[in-house]
Amino acid sequence: LEEISGSPGIGRRQLAKRLEQTERRIRNEIEILSRLGLIDSGQNGLNMTQLGNQVMYRLDDIYARETNRRTLENELAKGLGIKRVRIAKDPDDVAVIALIQLSGLLEHITTLGITGGTSVKRLVDRVIPDARSDLTVVPARGSLGQETSVQANTLAEELARKLQARFYPLIAIDQLQHDTREQMLREPLIRRTLEQMEKIDGLIFGIGRADDMMIRRDLPPKLCDKLVEAGVVGEALGSFFNPEGKRIHELETFGIRIEQLQTLDFLMAIAYGKDKALAVVSVSHINPNIILVTDRSCAEEMSTLLGGRNNGKSSN
Description:
The protein has 15 helices and 13 strands. It is an alpha/beta fold and about 325 residues long. The chain folds into 2 domains: about 1-50, no CATH class; about 50-315, Rossmann fold (3-Layer(aba) Sandwich), CATH 3.40.50.1360. Helix 2 (about 10-20) crosses helix 3 (about 25-35) and helix 14 (about 275-285) packs across helix 15 (about 295-315). The model has no long low-confidence stretch (mean pLDDT about 90).
């Protein structure tokens, strides 16, 4: 189920090769899973069903309890002060775990905001087509000027298409000069999307390293120097944070405001890689309802950072 979820449309032969099993064995397993209604096996290859996702969610929970992974997840959730942490085996598996969490998230919301970035794109690529006509999807920020395929507007549109949900576009650069921004705010299409953005009750977002995001956002050298001097380490939705989670600077953007994010009951952050650990720790303070999906290397580094911080407090 995990292999099929991670590679929608995979064929029997390729699946057998990946799992190092005979095609006959795989064919028998597929017949069983199909009869149970967990997968579809047709001309479009092998794909998960909604029931299959639900079953995989339960199996993942059982597997985690049987290993030490759940212990680390619970320790991190407590240390970060957030609702839940889910750890994937490696970066390639992060999107699969995020997809499982998304299935639960969608049961509670009507308007979903989504940011851009590679981490979020991997999740959108894994989403299984479904009928969610009662759902609205909106980009949670403007364009950062990077390649089109990972921009928030592109990913929101693709997710809405897969879920048959309503979609409101935001064709705007995230950061603009104040006068230009005020002028664009008078545009009916942009105003309509921003009105929908205010209704967001669920959010999927990525977390970035501050130094990387300064470059991606093409910030002026003087502002970069100021942020570096202030010791910022993490960024989310145009806000920069120091290691203690204090918001040091907020850019004027078209995205959802941190103040609105802080009021949400349902939100998922996706970040992975050891080098993202400090950034995740800094950003996690913004809302205790965050569900964090990460990988083992990032999780273990966060555990080390939080352990050192707690030891420092106890020694004082």
